[in-house]
Amino acid sequence: MFDFLEGYDLLGAFWVTIKLTLLSAVGSLIWGTVLAALRVGPVPLMRGFGTAYVNIVRNIPLTVIILFTSLGLNQTLGISLGAHGFSHINFRLAVLGLIVYTSAFVCEAVRSGINTVPVGQAEAARAIGLNFTQVLRLVVLPQAFRSVVGPLTNVLIALTKNTTVAAAIGVAEAAALMKDMVENEAQLLLISAIFAFGFVVLTLPTGLILGWVGKKVAVKR
Amino acid sequence: MTEVSVAKQDVAATGDLVVLRNVNKHFGALHVLQDIDLSIARGEVVVVIGPSGSGKSTLCRTINRLETIDSGTILIDGRPLPQEGKELARLRADVGMVFQSFNLFAHKTVLENVTLGQIKVRRKDKKEAEEKARALLDRVGVAAQADKYPAQLSGGQQQRVAIARALAMDPKVMLFDEPTSALDPEMINEVLEVMQQLARDGMTMVVVTHEMGFARSAANRVVFMADGRIVEEATPDQFFSNPRSDRAKDFLSKILHH
């Protein structure tokens, strides 16, 4: 029944999906947190930048962003992010595009977490002489992150599925392989089911594990 | 009032620790602090009392610039309060603050609450900071709770930890913003006792409170505020037995006789 799978590197394709997901997740967590810090900061210019970034980026379709990294950054401006060869370059471009896009959502999740931290926590931190960055890094963000594990899990699951858009610029991840197989094989329903199952295998444990983590690290008040 | 203010001016010559001159602040249309003049000498315990909304908490919070002021001058140890930034952070480390709602860092243990400022602001090493923290926790009577999280402590214990956290910075002056107002009645005394001990040890203190017993027993001076102004300043004895202003008489008659 699964004879048609022969000759296709299914695991390899999902491995690319996993790499795309993990690299983009780390990148967007960092950049998204920086954006959130900008948005709650005391400098109006930085606040303005953070707000503009989020409102512009989250309203552009991911496909447009991913295509822009390839057509705009790479083919027009000649940016290759230090990689050589079509597949390497496009993989890095896809990670960049996913980070740019996902960080807008991470920023908003983190910012909502910051809003759950009572204002007295920051006041007490300032009162013992911590500066703005220390207040954020040592007192506010650690508590904010603990309260947004749930929303961040949603973002991570969405990101996992969004990596399929990288197929648009020729990254050989799961969706690209599925397209190949659909063109060459007859078992359309079965192929779709296999790939759907593959994504569920990736995302379901993510949700369960992070759900448990979220409960575990919650701040008691 | 003249008696007290003459005495105060003598102290001013020797350099008061906290000086507020002609301080004004508005919250929108509300003129919450009106021409406040107040000097606090080294080692003095000043209790600020008054009805709700009189501006006494705001006054307390302006001294370490958790609230900004619209006009006037605030001097700490002879230096004007700097703008937000490094200088201000340094100054705040010298001004201890205790809040009505404790505000212990909820994600850190009691011990970490008391060491954080020492390590990150005073740049002490961890061991030294922990030794000092344990000594302070012992002094306020919660040494046994060092490894618990704030949420596991009673309100009175939390507030005593908050006092230890402030003391860990070796502050020049301690501000108390209604430190017992959020406590169950039977926990108020354990906090007041710690504060009384602190006053006896010569700490300069500004205490906003509704605890008249504390004002009587520990204060060098009572400042009575109403509607954003300092209405009366006197020694506790003078103030409680013989208030001069009608506003203070009215206030005292409402809280002392029932």
UniProtKB/TrEMBL annotation, chain A:
**Localization, UniProt:** Cell membrane
Matching entries from PROSITE patterns are given as: ABC_TM1
Q: Is the keyword Transmembrane helix assigned to this protein? A: yes
Q: Which GO terms describe its molecular function?
A: transmembrane transporter activity
User: Is Cell membrane given among the entry's keywords?
Assistant: yes
The record's CDD domains line, in alphabetical order, gives: TM_PBP2 (cd06261)
Q: How does it sit in the membrane?
A: Multi-pass membrane protein
> Could you state one GO biological process linked to this protein?
amino acid transport
Q: How is this protein annotated for GO cellular component?
A: ATP-binding cassette (ABC) transporter complex
Q: Which UniProt keywords apply?
A: Amino-acid transport, Cell membrane, Membrane, Transmembrane, Transmembrane helix, Transport
- Which residues belong to any copy of the ABC transmembrane type-1 domain? 14-210
Transmembrane annotation, as ranges: 12-38, 59-83, 89-107, 188-213
Name the PANTHER family for this protein.
AMINO-ACID ABC TRANSPORTER PERMEASE PROTEIN YHDX-RELATED, MEMBRANE COMPONENT OF AMINO ACID ABC TRANSPORTER
Give the record's family classification. Answer: Belongs to the binding-protein-dependent transport system permease family. HisMQ subfamily.
Q: NCBIfam families recorded for this chain?
A: HEQRo_perm_3TM
* Name of this protein: Glutamate ABC transporter permease
Q: Which species is the source of this protein?
A: Streptomyces echinoruber
TrEMBL record, chain B:
Tell me the compartments it is located in.
Answer: Cell membrane
- Pfam families attached here? ABC_tran (PF00005)
Entries under InterPro entries matching the protein: AAA+_ATPase, ABC_ATPase_HisP-typ, ABC_transporter-like_ATP-bd, ABC_transporter-like_CS, MetN_ABC_transporter-like, P-loop_NTPase
Which EC main class describes this enzyme? translocase
Q: Which residues constitute the signal peptide according to the record?
A: none
Q: Which CDD domains match?
A: ABC_HisP_GlnQ (cd03262)
Output one GO MF annotation: ATP hydrolysis activity
Keyword Manganese among record annotations: no
SMART domains per record: AAA
Q: Which UniProt keywords apply?
A: Amino-acid transport, ATP-binding, Cell membrane, Membrane, Nucleotide-binding, Transport
Domain annotation ABC transporter: ranges: 18-252
Reaction equation(s) it catalyzes: a polar amino acid(out) + ATP + H2O = a polar amino acid(in) + ADP + phosphate + H(+)
Output a single Gene Ontology CC term carried by this record: plasma membrane
> How does the protein's chain sit in the membrane according to the entry?
Peripheral membrane protein
Question: EC?
Answer: 7.4.2.1
Q: Does the keyword ATP-binding apply?
A: yes
State the similarity comment: Belongs to the ABC transporter superfamily.
What is the name attached to this protein's record? ABC-type polar-amino-acid transporter
Instruction: Please give the organism.
Output: Streptomyces echinoruber
Source taxonomy: Bacteria, Bacillati, Actinomycetota, Actinomycetes, Kitasatosporales
